[in-house]
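Predict fold of D-lactate dehydrogenase (cytochrome); 941 aa.
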Amino acid sequence: MLAQQYKNFQEELAFYVDHKRIITNPLQLLAYGTDASFYRLIPKIVVQVHNEEEAIATIHTAYKNNVALTYRAAGTSLSGQAVTDSVLMVATHRWKDYEILNNGLQARFQPGIIGGRANIILAPYGRKIGPDPGSINAAMIGGIAANNASGMCCGTAQNSYNTIADIRIIFYDGTVLNTADSDSKKAFEAKHPEIIKGIIQLRDDIATDSILYERIKRKFKIKNTTGYSLNAFVDFQDPYDIIKHIMIGSEGTLAFISDITYNTVINYKRKACTLMIFETIELACQAVPYLKQSPVAAVELLDRNSIKSIENEPLAPEYFKSLPETACILLVEAQADDEEEMNNKQKAIRLAVAPIPTYKPFEFTSEPQQYAFNWKARNGLLPTTGALRKTGTTCIIEDVAFPVEKLADACIAMKSLFAKLGYTDAVLFGHALEGNLHLVFSQDFSTQHEIDRYAKMMDGLVDIVVNQFNGSLKAEHGTGRNMAPFVEKEWGTQAYQAMLRIKAIFDPNNLVNPGVIINTNPHIHLENLKPSPATNEIVDKCIECGFCESHCVAEGLTLSPRQRIVIGREIARLENTLEDANRLKQMLADATYYSDETCATDGLCALACPVKIDTGKYIKDIRHQKLSIKAHKDAEYFVENIDRVTAMGRTGLKLLNFSRRLFGDKLMYKTATSVRKLSNNKLPQWNIAMPTATQTRITKTIANPNQERKVVYYPSCINRTMGKSKDYLKEDVDLISKTTELLVRAGFTIIYPENLDNMCCGMPFSSKGYKEEGFTKSSSLEEALLKASNNGQIPVLFDMSPCFYTFYEAHKDGALKMYDPIEFMQDFVMDHLEVKNPRKEINVYPVCSVKKIGLEGKLLELTKRCAEKVNYINSNCCGFAGDRGFTHPELNKHGNRHLQEQLIQNSHDGFSTSRTCEIGLSEFGGINFKSIFYLIDEVTK
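Predicted 3D structure, encoded as tokens:
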């Protein structure tokens, strides 16, 4: 019967939602069904909804077929509130609309906008959203509101509950309510008078129950997200005010948030922070009440184990490693509009904390690097501490709050509990100003003994928080599944009965995210535990937090980095247990496309990951493991004959260009696409930006001799193969010739490495898993460059950023002084060229390697010398990924789906530093992208 319900749901929904987005493939179900918590439930169906109409259809169809439905945004939830074994509705892609109201004083956001992106949008108005969770650069507005996430600076005064202006929600049967629209409220009341009546009755019942009324007021004097926001019934009288506030923190169990309007808060111009070191955690906690009376914006507590997790970071102070084992840090933030106000606030903070001695003197800093490190280290503490765990164990995070005056005693009690149960790696950190602490520890769930130990830990924690200190079992991470059994314990029977009534009012059939917040199973927190088998040392430290997802070009097309790791772990589990051979076989088959072939291996995920996990390296390692002896032997031919390969490439490009000129672009594209389909997509895809062969051949080792300045120029094998595209100017020459012209004009003697035609940085091999072959080519190039540069005395210029990055990563500790085209032109060339014809405005696209090597700032400096206005395109990887733009063009298309809307209106070109990326950018941007060398040449002629 149940199976039939899901079948009916799926068939009916296909009339409203593209069947490709009604997912039943086991691999995708597992991937999408995973969130940042330590629970695993695999949905039966995943529905990707792209707009409100689709969401309404999905919700109504689920209600009609009596099918349970869970809503999901980014899936950074830590307590199991975004997983289900029924239907999962994902509202992330295309839910990006927003509206700025009242000159930035308010802003309306759809649920799929990342919190950090919302703040970027509001920045020109000097405003931001109130909530500032540590996951703000990954968490989306829908989840931030649904979980009432707070964070470092917002406390309770600026969380979603206290900054919501209005909300648009979809109820269990598909009915829409917009609290900002009087007509919508009238229509809703006419359709669902029982909901309004139920809310008014509960409000009045709470008001007449003085014990419950006072308990609610007292419980919300500190942070509290355990259960529902009962304070809505105390703080407001109007039922619609109650509705919009009860939705905050309801964790998707009452309705779906289609959009939310926030009252924004001031984003101060000046910010400074300091690290106050105390000899013990007790002293640090004693300082908090003093700091609370001072003009601080945030006070973050980091215990000694927290500090250990970040002490080896490059920007970490050296003294971190020598602090006493009892030490504790308070990260204190001050914010102001001007320098005078900032100085006054810092003086007031120093004076306030003076009664409590610090272990060493402290200074405030606004220096960008150190300031950014301090906060990045704090925001990433969950993943970085989780990465310290033993492979195969799970990272657990709990989130509690105490009255500030009881914080020190509560810390001592919790550390005593850790010691008693053997959690020697347990870490304490959190928002001390609000008495809000996060405790992180590793847990082995592979044996019943360990599960029992975890149960004792939870029981002990509940006793400390509820019985000893009258605190909150959940302060900002939401109740989810892991605290659902203890909601009544914390709140008492009367309050819990009120919560049951809330659930029944809004979800009478218990179909909206059932099992979350309200759950009658006293052991639900010990069930459906996520396995974490050893998979690959590159990714074994991943805690599946999801921070990486917004940086992945394949996310939304196939899998994100987190999802690739999830699939890898499931394959490892099945291989270890041998429990389901058919499932393993299917997983391996599907992973070939979803996980391997559509991974750009660009490594941008590592930039967002607090523990620097590069899923691209993981995928390359998988590719390496799959290679046969024959494949390696075939690769050896290419290693030894790069000159022949590039020659064949030039011949092929000439033939393609001849065909294009003969048949025209449209017929050429149609024919090439048809031939590719006939080959089962084994042949590369031709596109209109495909270049012809380069006309430039380097036959000598020195050009423009006897100059004072010298450079070794290494033209990449790509640029030794590919020349101009059809949209290049007639007077343009190939990139190698253009680079040579610029260097000569700037007064450089140019030295080329010997045997250049057979040189390669190794990337074409290493990116496909041929590690040994890639290293062989890379090492040969190093020898040639050392010889040409007089053992590193002369700088080496690479003309493509990806080639430079690949070579640099392999040989950065060697004698060579090597440079990306951006850095070399900015630091060595531009001062010897006069900018005579600057552009008014230009489009500039930073490729992945530029971001990874940290050259975005230099790229801006360089391009600002060439134009009055630089349109710096803010994007992930373009998805061309070396050759993926030819072999898997859907990845390139997906990566550039928002490119055109970011370009300067009526522009005709753009600039970058990777020839292959420029092909894809040209095709999907609709303008001609080419190397930045052409821009420099144009403005300095």
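The mean pLDDT is 95.
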